[in-house]
Specification:
This protein folds into two domains: about 150 residues, no CATH class; about 180 residues, no CATH class. About 40% of the residues lie in helices and about 10% in strands. It has 16 helices and ten strands. Strands 1-2-7-4 form a four-stranded antiparallel β-sheet, with helices on both faces. It has a two-stranded parallel ribbon with strand order 3-10. Strands 5-6 form a two-stranded antiparallel ribbon. The protein is elongated and about 80 Å long. Its EC number is 1.17.99.6. InterPro entries: 4Fe4S_Fe-S-bd (IPR017896), 4Fe4S_Fe_S_CS (IPR017900), QueG (IPR004453), QueG_DUF1730 (IPR013542).
């Protein structure tokens, strides 16, 4: 067989990637040595909270060639997910509505992107019999953001997410580990500058320093990854966010350039699009599983779903209907959820007695919403 023209193959890979729906494809080597010290410090500080899997696998997470032997290159891809009519500021304004992180409004991205990465691998294999490759979509011990940064997909912002000049941060990442010596792409210069909007706006001050997020304080961690009770100090700050948090993205100036996705699978499901909290609270477990089938929300389970909504109802304006719903749910749920219901009832009672002053978080939230409305893409 004639020798492989890797430069030409790389160009084909990027064309195939675009045909499969990826907005960008980049290639990098496996050397993550410059990222290892920061990652180790993050672990040493305990910023991974109860996510013990982050500290497993030894050096495998920073050495892709150990994760999949024979790997010498990583193909990194991004796929935009910002839906049209996302109702972000609108939902955050209404305390009786539940805010769900925009990435979770449609179908679970893991299967969608993995399937397309597999197809990309098949196309490469048809042109190169010696290919040995394996796709990953947030499913293995990989530092996908450093890999994406090295592959030229963007730069790591101060909120620790990848930013792109043309796309902001509203996109998913995926990787293919391969054994081919493809030419690599050049990284993009960090363009956060002196901006600290994401640090200032975080409701729980989880971004403890530029490029360093303490998961113990992060609303996304508290509402998705945490299995037990949400620490009481953070409950008022969560507001009406019942699954994840987008505040650091919403406030980022680069996201005004974000493109809306054409992927129908990422468009909002009607039952999750600015939903009424009480309507969601009434979902029995069987109904919850049915309504969240194929959704990333399903992974938290019904108990944590009720936990999160209980907190949001406690943060909502006083309502006799809310109090009744909380009291009704109390007698039929778990001890963990009951703890949050008790707290929520206390918040509702205090509001009824008119003894709760205006919290600083409300002022911060109002500021956030005003800034969001100015920063969002026109159709979002």
């Amino acid at each position: 067989m004639p020798p492989i023209d890797y430069q030409q193959l790389t160009q084909k890979i990027k064309v195939w990637g675009a045909e499969l729906g990826f907005q960008q494809v980049g290639i990098t080597d496996t050397d993550l040595s410059t990222y290892e010290p920061h990652f180790q410090t993050w672990l040493d500080n305990g910023y991974h909270a109860d996510m013990d899997y982050m500290s497993r696998y030894g050096t495998m997470r920073t050495h892709p060639e150990e994760l999949y032997p024979g790997t010498i290159r990583v193909i990194s891809v991004r796929m935009d997910y910002l839906p049209p009519d996302a109702l972000m500021a609108t939902t955050l304004k209404q305390k009786n509505k539940g805010y769900i992180s925009r990435y979770a409004l449609g179908r679970d991205y893991h299967k969608i992107i993995r399937k397309r990465l597999k197809h990309l691998g098949e196309k490469i294999s048809a042109h190169c019999e010696t290919l040995d490759a394996r796709p990953f979509v947030d499913t293995g011990p990989l530092l996908e953001r450093p890999l994406a940064e090295k592959a030229g997909l963007g730069w790591i912002g101060k909120h620790s997410l990848i930013l792109n000049k043309e796309a902001g941060s509203w996109f998913f990442l995926g990787e293919i580990l391969i054994n081919l010596p493809l030419p690599v792409d050049k990284p993009i210069e960090n363009q956060c500058g002196k901006c600290t909007a994401c640090l200032q706006i975080c409701p729980t001050q989880a971004i403890v320093a530029p490029y360093s997020v303490d998961a113990n304080r992060c609303i996304s961690y508290l509402t998705i990854e945490l299995f037990g009770a949400i620490p009481e100090e953070f409950r008022p700050l969560i507001g009406n966010r019942i699954y994840g948090c987008d505040d650091c993205q919403l406030i980022c100036p680069w996201n005004r350039f974000a493109a809306l996705t054409d992927e129908q699978d990422f468009h909002p499901r009607s039952n999750l699009h600015s939903p009424d909290l009480l309507a969601l609270y009434a979902w029995e477990e069987t109904y919850f599983l049915k309504q969240t089938e194929g959704s990333p929300i399903r992974r938290i389970g019904h108990e944590r779903w009720l936990r999160n909504i209980s907190v949001a109802l406690g943060n909502a304006a006083y309502s006799a209907e809310i109090v009744e719903a909380l009291e009704t749910k109390f007698v039929e749920t778990t001890e963990m959820v009951q703890e949050h219901i008790t707290w929520a009832l206390q918040q509702q009672q205090a509001k009824a007695d008119n003894i709760i002053p205006v919290l600083q978080i409300d002022k911060t939230k109002d500021k956030l919403i005003r800034m969001i409305e100015k920063a969002l893409p026109r159709d979002a």
